[in-house]
Amino acid sequence: MFKKLLIANRGEIAVRIIRAARELGIQTVAIYSEADRDSLHTMLADEAICIGPARSTDSYLNMNRVLSAAIVTEAQAIHPGFGFLSENSKFSTLCEEMNIKFIGPSGKVMDKMGDKINARAEMIRANVPVIPGSDGEVFTAEEALEVAKRLGYPVMLKASAGGGGKGIRKVNTEEELAPAFESASQEAKAAFGNGAMYIEKVIYPARHIEVQILGDSYGNIVHLGERDCSLQRNNQKVLEESPSVAIGKTLRHEIGSAAVRAAKAVNYENAGTIEFLLDEKSGQFYFMEMNTRVQVEHPVTEFVSGVDIVKEQIRIAAGEKLSVTQDDIEIKGHAIECRINAENPKFNFAPSPGKISNLYLPSGGVGLRVDSAVYPGYTIPPYYDSMIAKIIVHGENRFEALMKMQRALYELEIDGVVTNADFQLDLISDRSVIAGDYDTSFLMETFLPEYQNREE
Predict the structure, then answer these.
(1) Is the peptide bond before 382 cis (omega within 30 degrees of 0)?
(2) Residue 278, pLDDT above cutoff 90
(3) pLDDT at site 188
(4) Based on the domain organization, do 239 and 135 belong to the same domain?
């Protein structure tokens, strides 16, 4: 096992990793930007080292500075969390070259699955259903028009090397395609350094279902059930739950088996997530993409599976076998996660950085967990993601989990900044959400218009 681990991240995920490492008896090193000098992760780690100014490109995204911090502190491994360098194949490869263990898959596997064109080809070979789409990368609007004509509208433009909702556009008509292509391609080039796109037939509305997998270096791969992430705003997840009410026993087995086949096809190692779109009418599911890192919503899977995903990541990277087999995995109860962000729902969810003057995070009772890195007096910087906390609940059944989440959101108190807490409470209290009657269109096309009319 490692003696010292560097966390190449910030915020609640950095705190989450520090806690897991400490429980495994591993010393931790926090890195931070000048804007994060007073952040909680710098206080909880055994060591903390400043790696640059506030801008991510000068700090958390600067590979040389992150690696230098690991060398100076003699850290044996780096956990990238999510975002920043977590899916950067070059960084993973550099860690390997410098004899520092990257807690995640190899750069080669990242390139296979991070590039959507490569991933699509791998899945076809592994007999995993894929969404009808372009045969490869599309570089011009003219090419895009030809592909879209073959597939039929609507289509989805997606950045080949993208993720996190960047470089994505839904196109309903031929007239919309050229300007949408140029816009998405420019956004992708700015975000990922690669403006290449690919095109998919739109499966919409649908359920966004993702399956958590774990793989070790001995060829063992398991899945930990599925999460329903269909409640999204602008392709960004808002609320997640596990298991999905849209999936029965037979389909659960099929989609879980497909996820394992997908991971085995690329000899996947560490934690990852296979994302699918489910057409509820036909019951057909399609591979969408793979995230080669731990997910923001991993706690709901931890609650229902009983597996500590972050600890498993560290153990796998240290050369240990998976602590569980597929037969050991039993999904128990129901879990829900709400993301609490410093943003103003009344003004198109504009970021709301500032100082937290008063804070009360819900607590008490079995099956309630809050992952956060904020505290009273903490100033949320304007440079990074606006997430304040994740509230995660677990109940014996879905109704109990829903009621527990409502209770937790009622108790939550954050003063000094505007948050989306009331929005989340309204969402979790909505009749359609309570009934489980929603899909990827629901939040944007049904709930938000009604919510905005009420606010006015």
Answers:
(1) no
(2) yes
(3) 87
(4) no
Residue 54: name the closest of 350, 359, 353 by CA: 353
Q: Are both 301 and 320 inside the same structural domain?
A: yes
> CA-to-CA distance for 118 and 58, rounded, in angstroms?
30
Q: In this structure, which amino acid lies at residue 265? A: A
**CA angle (360, 298, 443) in 5-degree steps:** 75
- Reduced to 3 states (helix: H, G, I; strand: E, B; else coil), residue 160 is coil
Pair (182, 221) in one structural domain: no
C-beta of residue 370 within 8 angstroms of C-beta of residue 379: no
* pLDDT value for 164: 64
Work out the angle between the directed axes of helices 116-125 and 107-114 (0-180°, nearest 10). 90
**Residues forming a β-bridge with 33:** 52
**Is residue 30 within 8 Å of 47, Cβ to Cβ?**
yes
Check whether residue 86 and residue 217 sit in a common domain. no
Question: What does the radius of gyration of the chain's CA atoms come to, in whole angstroms?
Answer: 21
For residues 401 and 80, what is the distance between their CA atoms, to the nearest angstrom? 30
Residue 186 is part of which domain span? 131-199
Decide if 351 contacts 382 (C-beta within 8 A).
Answer: yes
Amino acid at 353: P
Rounded to an integer, the average pLDDT of 167-177 is 93
Same domain flag for 88 and 142: no
Residue (of 173, 209, 222) closest to 322 by Cα position: 222
Average pLDDT, the chain: 95
The whole-angstrom separation of Cα 429 and Cα 338 is 12
Average pLDDT over residues 406-433: 98
Residue 165 has pLDDT above 90, yes or no: no
* Tens-digit pLDDT profile for residues 371-407: 999 999 999 999 999 999 999 999 999 999 999 999 9
Residues 6+ apart with CB under 8 A from 69: 6, 29, 31, 49, 51, 75
- Show which residues are catalytic: 293
Number of domains comprising the chain: 3
414 φ, ψ (degrees, to nearest 5): -135, 115
The pLDDT value recorded for residue 353 is: 95
DSSP state string for 41-75: HHHHSSEEEEEE-SSGGGTTT-HHHHHHHHHHHT-
pLDDT above 80: residue 456: no
